[in-house]
Amino acid sequence: MSAKNKSILLKGNEAITAGNNEGFLNLCTEDTRWEFVGDKVLNGKEEVRTYMEQNYLAPPKFNVKNLIAEGDFVTAIGEISMRDKDGKLIHYHYCDVWRFKGEQIAELRGFVIEKR
Q: 30's torsion region: left (phi>0), alpha (psi -120 to 50) or beta?
């Protein structure tokens, strides 16, 4: 299942990069949970959808450096670039730990730090 989960996550990243947030959300469970460690927790697809609408003003760009899978978990380590509300491009380092339930994304625990 580990290789399948990696494939699903990469498909989700491609959808987001293409501006297709709904394509990504279709890969998630209804009760998906996103925790941005030290910041906020989003519960359910509707909260994630709202977050994406408010924060992905332009599609983010991912540079996945490592993708590690075991059992129901995939850890993605890399960089993401996103535009802020003023249109400025901000670059971040990230480590995302994704939990899968069957073939759907059930949970994210993300560690995100702005690059300096």
A: alpha
Segment 3-57, tens digit of pLDDT: 999 999 999 999 999 999 999 999 999 999 999 999 999 999 999 999 999 999 8
d(CA 75, CA 32): 17
Whichever domain contains 11, its CATH number is 3.10.450.50
Q: What is the pTM of this model?
A: 0.93
The HSE-up count of residue 17 (CA atoms within 13 Å, CB side) is 12
Give residue 105's domain range: 2-114
Judge whether 85 and 24 are in contact, CB under 8 Å: no
